[in-house]
Amino acid sequence: MNKDLLDVLMDFPGRSVLIVGDVMLDEYVWGEVRRISPEAPVPVVEVRRRVYVPGGAGNTAANVVSLGGRAWLGGAVGRDPPAEVLRQVLREHGIPDRGLVVDPARPTTTKTRIVARNQQIVRVDMESRLPLPPELEDALLGYAVSRLGEAHVCILSDYAKGVVSTRLAERFIQLAREAGKPVVVDPKGTDYAKYRGATVVTPNVHEVEVALHCEINGPMELQEAGQKLSAILEGSALLITRGPEGMSLFLNGEEAVHIPAVARSVFDVTGAGDTVVAALALALAAGATLQDAARLANYAAGIVVGKFGTATVTLEELLEEVGNA
Predict the structure, then answer these.
(1) Which residue in 41, 182, 285, 324 could disulfide with 15, CB within 3.0 to 4.6 Å?
(2) Which residues are part of the catalytic machinery?
């Protein structure tokens, strides 16, 4: 039994997390396939139900709440029906929508997955990657400032949908540091310099390869890539998630600390990174070391990949998983 980790988990309730980033609406269209279309060689899906859940930074916030914390969420939506649906599902998850700024020039980022027999047939994305206008970026930073005082930890959730510009990232991290709050970054793209000053940055292996224009095929290449990215981050810790191979934590450019994956059947990895970031942030808010926080995040990842679609992990599930380890 991991008593130290259980003690940290018991401190999750009551911890507040400020999340700023790319908020999305995830729509699941469930149906049945009985025939092939006479118009083209594609299946005809007879729709049975639709399910809406928060995606992107919204899923990170939903995981914070399901793990016992309180989430303050900042992001951008359009002036369209999906924005109203997203606001409603956020409220249903116990997440206030006051931090969402409205950009009439962009659609609310929406990912529609059409599913039959638990298999995703196709995904349809509606999005704009254009940067926010300066006045909306300022409004988003203003919301962050208004919530910093009551937040125990901050998350920057970058899905490269236009919200997390270099200016917003640098300013958000600076504000959090000045307030003495840890910052966890879920990164995207190739410009990791904008995340300097964060407490920990959490790319997966593929994202590291994209950032460094390299391929990672073994431990030596992983170590070299981790050290290169750590140098770019100038002191921020680096937690590389590696799917079935677990996680690797780089601190101060030292040899990586490898955390084996929790043995579990992988059903769906959608949103697993959001779960990792939420658990990691709450653990840091509860006073855990980075290594213990990473271990807890690893357990949370092992649970969520066993669920279908954009999913969350509950505090009870994580307590049981850690207690039985």
Answers:
(1) 285
(2) 274
